[in-house]
User: Which sequence fits this backbone?
């Protein structure tokens, strides 16, 4: 507060108190009532002045602090306000006694987060990028981050797993455990499906009456799940190489029985490119050219030409496709290569 304004208000308070004393010494009910009105007004001004001089820690809560000072000024004119100011100054100037730490520490409190019923729908309505930013933002509240991490369960594993791996190093233990739980659940689900189809394949192999076509289809299912393990990002490093080799072995088993099966040929092409085996990928493309629609294999042929540094061939390969046959995620690539024609 401005010092001039402070002194003006202090003078006003003293003037009102002086007027109240004069009214108190005058006989008559009207004068007595006027005394309380004047004295109350002086107490309000004094309470405001004293409250502004208190330390910030003693001004809160504002309503109760002002009420206390007003009552002191009303019931104990001058002495009550002066006594409060002096008591506060003495307390602030006095040295604080050191606090003795107890040997027994308080048990950690269990935090229970209030989840509103509509909160799930609010998080689900957010775009994946926004959910991911909330999940990794340490400035967000824990409850918000937990809901965002839980929302990752509805995202494709190949998009959510890199983020979940990042959260495994999060300083918040709850976030780490939740991220590990979601990633582990996905891995266990795919592993269980893979073990099941492997057992079915081995059971068919053990039967002498099993048809070769049934064996080829069983091998294809094993290879597809191995590929799913890789595609979802669940297999990394040596485990990824092992899964690629296993998927390749089962794919070749199926192709020996059904060499023209488009699904098996497509699986062979994807595996060859994942293994950077360009020759095997080229052989698979030649077979797919005779047994499948160009819309299926042309994007892979363009990628293969790109990897082989045959850039002029990429445009010629992609020209076999019409825009209506291209998946939405590939249309920006088509527009880039054929921008000059547009």
Assistant:
């Amino acid at each position: 507060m401005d010092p001039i304004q402070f002194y003006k208000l202090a003078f006003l308070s003293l003037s009102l108190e002086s007027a109240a004393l004069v009214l108190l010494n005058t006989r008559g009910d009207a004068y007595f009532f006027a005394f309380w009105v004047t004295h109350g007004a002086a107490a309000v001004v004094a309470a405001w002045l004293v409250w502004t001089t208190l330390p910030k820690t003693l001004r809160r809560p504002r309503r109760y602090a002002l009420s206390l000072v007003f009552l002191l000024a009303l019931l104990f004119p001058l002495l009550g306000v002066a006594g409060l100011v002096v008591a506060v100054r003495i307390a602030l100037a006095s040295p604080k006694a050191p606090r003795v730490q107890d040997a027994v520490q308080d048990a950690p409190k269990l935090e229970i987060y209030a989840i509103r019923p509509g909160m799930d729908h609010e998080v689900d309505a957010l775009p994946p990028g926004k959910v991911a930013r909330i999940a990794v933002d340490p400035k967000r509240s824990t409850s918000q981050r937990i809901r965002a991490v839980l929302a990752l369960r509805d995202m494709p594993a190949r998009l959510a797993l890199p983020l979940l791996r990042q959260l495994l190093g999060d300083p918040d233990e709850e976030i780490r455990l939740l991220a590990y739980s979601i990633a582990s659940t996905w891995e266990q689900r795919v592993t269980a499906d893979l073990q099941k189809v492997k057992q079915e394949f081995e059971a068919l192999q053990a039967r002498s009456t099993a048809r070769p076509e049934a064996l080829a289809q069983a091998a294809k299912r094993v290879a597809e799940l191995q590929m799913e393990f890789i595609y979802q990002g669940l297999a990394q490093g040596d485990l990824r190489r092992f899964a690629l080799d296993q998927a390749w072995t089962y794919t070749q088993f199926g192709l020996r029985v059904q060499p023209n099966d488009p699904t098996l040929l497509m699986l062979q092409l994807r595996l060859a490119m994942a293994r950077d085996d360009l020759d095997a990928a080229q052989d698979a493309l030649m077979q797919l050219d005779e047994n499948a629609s160009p819309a299926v294999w042309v994007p892979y042929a363009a990628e293969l030409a790109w990897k082989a540094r045959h850039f002029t061939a990429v445009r010629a390969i992609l020209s076999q496709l019409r825009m209506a046959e291209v998946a939405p995620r590939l249309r920006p690539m088509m527009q880039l290569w054929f921008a000059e024609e547009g």
Notes: Residues 102-126 have pLDDT under 50 and may be disordered. The chain has 16 helices and no strands.
